[in-house]
Amino acid sequence: MEAARLARFGVVGEPEIGHEQFKGRLSIPYITKSGVVDLRFRALHPAIEPKYMGMTGAETRMYNVLDIEKAGDFIGVCEGELDTITLSSCIGIPCIGVPGANSWKKHYTRLLADFERIFVFADGDQPGKEFAASLARELPVTVVQLPDGEDVNSAYVKYGADYIKEKAGLNG
C-alpha cells in the first residue's frame, strides 16, 4: 500500500468529460522533476480489455525516471509500471521501466550509460526474453531471467524479495 501511495497511484472515480473510458481503472502517473508528464490506466479486473490504456496522442515514455538520480552504481530495467514499482519500492532495487517489451527507444540507452551495472529483469515469456536480448545488444547488461510465466511482481509475491535479489546477485 505504501508503494502505491509513493507512486501516486489512484483509481479513476469521477472522470473528466471525454475520459469516461478510464472510469474504474488504476491511474499510473509518469512523474519527472517537472511533475506529472503522462498518465496510463490499467484495468483492475483481468477480464477487462484492453489491459492498459493511455491518453490519446501521448508518446511512449520511460517510467520511474526519478530512480536514475537515486540509484548508486547500478539500476534495474523492466517492462511494466507495476513491476518497476515492485523492484524500486518493495525490493529496494532502483529501477526504470517501459510500458511494454517493444517500447524501448534508442535514446533511453544514453540515460543509462554511466551506470556500472544494469540489470534487465526479463519476464518469463518470449517478449520478455526478446526485450532483454535487444537491450543486451545496446548496453552491457546483466540479464535476470525470471521463471516461465513469471514477471517481477508475480515472482515477488510467490518467492519474496530475497529471491529476486539473489537471482540478480545483489544479496549481501
Describe the protein's architecture and organization:
The protein is of the alpha/beta class. It folds into two domains: 2-54, no CATH class; 66-168, Dna Topoisomerase Vi A Subunit, Chain: A, domain 2 (3-Layer(aba) Sandwich), CATH 3.40.1360. Helices cover 31% and strands 24% of the residues. It has helices at residues 2-6, 66-70, 81-91, 108-111, 126-138, 152-159, 161-168; strands at residues 10-11, 26-32, 35-42, 52-54, 74-79, 95-98, 117-122, 141-145. The strands form two sheets. The chain has a four-stranded antiparallel β-sheet, with no helix packed on it. It has a four-stranded parallel β-sheet with strand order 6-5-7-8, with helices on both faces. Helix 6 (152-159) crosses helix 7. The longest helix is centred in the last third of the chain and has 13 residues, at 126-138. The two termini are 26 Å apart. The model has no long low-confidence stretch (mean pLDDT 94).
